[in-house]
Amino acid sequence: MCGIVGYIGYQDVKEILLRGLEKLEYRGYDSAGIAVLNDEGIHLFKEKGRIADLRNVVDPTVSASIGIGHTRWATHGAPSRVNAHPHQSASGRFTLVHNGVIENYAILKREYLQDVAFRSDTDTEVIVQLVEKFVNDGLSVEEAFRKTLTLLKGSYAIAMIDAENQEVIYVAKNKSPLLVGLGHGFNVVASDAMAMLQVTNQFVELMDKEMVIVTSEDITIKTLNGDIVQRAPYTAELDASDIEKGTYPHYMLKEIDEQPFVMRRIIQKYQDENGQLTIDPQIIQEVLNADRIYIIACGTSYHAGLVGKQLIEKWAKIPVEVHVASEFSYNMPLLSEKPLFIYISQSGETADSRAVLVQTNNLGYKAITITNVPGSTLSREADYTLLLHAGPEIAVASTKAYTAQIAVLAILAVATAKAKGIELDFDLVKELAIVANVMEMLCDAKEEMEKIAREYLAVTRNCFFIGRAVDYYVCLEGALKLKEISYIQAEGFAGGELKHGTIALIEDGTPVIALATQEHVNLSIRGNVKEVVARGANPCIISMRGLETEEDRFVIPAVHPMLTPLVSVVPLQLIAYYAALHRGCDVDKPRNLAKSVTVE
Ligand code: F6R
């Protein structure tokens, strides 16, 4: 979702901002813009579409060493050049970029800005117009900026420049992510460290309701009361090559292929010196103290949570509920006496999940965040964090984060079982190592997956995924992958549920992808396949070695029966990838979607 960059220093800023915005493209956006300031004043360039389109309208002869940039994912007002950021105050003195949603913008407009002619349909414009109004009323720019912030309700990450002062970028944050990066003779602002790794790896986190005065030599963090806050920088442990595609045509394919490596890295990161998988004893204690675990997540992370429930209940014998964050937030179920909350979020920034975390923190319940991004909002605000160690996930469609989430949940389940004295008849290190090897074999089966995608999905308008038990959860994920990148209407169903309504949709040739990796439901899911075939469906059965029959289209080498989601999802990810490719879709940046969903 929207991304912000800013630079103040000595180099020409245009290319730094544009390159930074390119690194934020993965978050999803529909328009982009930059504003740079030099002795002639502000130069503003905005365009609907891609950064490449913005590059075409940036005047290459303008040179400046202070500027801000933005990628916009429309919430208030259609995607258009006018609604693209940066936005300017009526006189053009102040120029601002914003990520988030200002919930009370209409009230503020009515109360303070009746006489101002607004140019855009955005909620953002109200911020920059308010700053100008308060400056016109006699406040200093810093006071006006602070006063504006105190009036805003909602979420914001903001960077603002003043045409009358080339020495400062005004920055603020509440709920939306924003970092300040430190350099020698320059400083930067970014929604994500990746955007500014080109110039620095030293970053300072900002907390909610903080503002920062950023100059080329210094940064001053203040609370909205004006108190100065000291905070040490951290080193962003990202390798620039982690965020490059290399020889891959798409990030999604690269990230699918990285899954075996991620499995091995997770084993290594969670192993103690004796080779035993281990979790922070304080986390284990919290799990043991709980009478019920509530997993909260969205989208793919929710699907990983469903698998995690099976693992924790079967191995650690603790009841688990899994909830979609956006529902839980407004419809909280009756909680157990000693609940423990686990938030699963690749980005650690998802606003829906964060809204629940704020609620459960207020209720005094302990929370663990499972995330790929150290220092992310959900990580900071929970009591404990378990990291995925999956490396940056850039493609909008989540792949390696999903399997990493399941692996970390498996480790948590086994470590809890051990702490409870429950004997398990397998060694998870060995089982995950087998998973990694099988993933490798599946990644090598690209040709076969490409064939399946061409044969079943080249022209269809819909596709069903059916499975039972844990296969059902993987079907939900397979369907989500397919629909988000190929735009084929795809749904995952519990095999037994189809006949209660959905089977009415099966027509001649309707593709039905069935997963059959679970022995105890193998006959039942095959019965469900027969039911759809009798109504004309074109079935594609993907089964597990040992359970296969002649009719199966693809057989996955066997892994531990509880860990099958880690491998059965790989063919589904690849099928979705090739289906999207055949249909000419933008695999890494599907329409309407954002990688980091920072608005509720
Ligand atoms: C789908 C996908 C989304 C995310 C969801 C939650 O491929 O990526 O469904 O899983 O938006 O995001 P995180 O995990 O960052 O909280």
Structure report:
With 600 residues, the chain is an alpha/beta fold. The chain has three domains: 3-241, Glutamine Phosphoribosylpyrophosphate, subunit 1, domain 1, CATH 3.60.20; 251-442, Rossmann fold; 445-587, Rossmann fold, CATH 3.40.50. Helix content is 35%, strand content 22%. The protein is built from 18 helices and 25 strands. The strands form four sheets. Strands 3-2-4-1-10-9-11-15 form an eight-stranded antiparallel β-sheet, covered by helices on one side. Strands 5-6-7-8-12-13-14 form a seven-stranded antiparallel β-sheet, covered by helices on one side. The N and C termini lie close together (12 Å). The model has no long low-confidence stretch (mean pLDDT 94). The protein binds fructose -6-phosphate. Fructose -6-phosphate is lined by residues 298-301, 345-347, 350, 353, 397-398, 480, 484, 597. This is Glutamine--fructose-6-phosphate aminotransferase [isomerizing].
Distance between the ends? 12 Å
Q: Any guess at the CATH architecture of the largest domain? A: 4-Layer Sandwich
> What would CATH call the class of the largest domain?
Alpha Beta
Put simply, the count of helices is: 18
Strand content: 15-25%
Give the fraction of residues assigned to helices.
25-40%
Give the uncertain stretches in residue-range form. Answer: none
Main β-sheet: number of strands, strand sense, barrel status? 8 strands, antiparallel
Task: Supply Rg.
Answer: 25 Å
Shape: globular
Summed up, the domain count is 3
Task: Specify the structural class.
Answer: alpha/beta
Bound molecules: fructose -6-phosphate
Total strands: 25
- Annotated CATH topology of the largest domain: Glutamine Phosphoribosylpyrophosphate, subunit 1, domain 1
